[in-house]
Amino acid sequence: MPAIVENYDVCVVGAGHAGCEAALACARLGLNTIIFTVSVDSIALMPCNPNVGGSSKGHLVREIDALGGEMGKNIDKTFIQSKMLNKSKGPAVHSLRAQADKVAYSMEMRKTLQNTDNLTIKQIEIAEIITDDNNNITGVKSVTGAIYNCKAAVLCTGTYLRARCLTGEFINETGPNGLQAATHLTDSLKEHGIEMYRFKTGTPARVDKRSLDFSKMQEQFGDERIVPFSFTTNPDDVQIDQISCWLTYTNEETHEIIRNNLDRSPMYSGVIEGTGPRYCPSIEDKVVKFADKNRHQIFIEPEGLNTNEMYVGGMSSSLPEDVQLAMYRTVPGMENVKIVRNAYAIEYDCINPNQLYASLEFKNVHGLFSGGQFNGSSGYEEAACQGLIAGINAAMKILKKEPLILDRSEAYIGVLIDDLVTKENFEPYRMMTSRAEYRLLLRQDNADLRLAEQGHRVGLLSDDRYEWVQKKSKMIEDEIERINNVKIGANKKVQEFLERHNSIPLNTGVSLADLMRRPELGYESLAELDPERVELPEEVKNQVEINVKYDGYIKRQIKQVEHFKKLEKKKLPTDFDYSKIGGLRIESVQKLNKLQPLSIGQASRISGVSPADISVILVYLEQLKYSNTELFFQLNGHEE
Question: How far is 307 from 299, CA to CA, in rounded Å?
Answer without folding.
Answer: 17
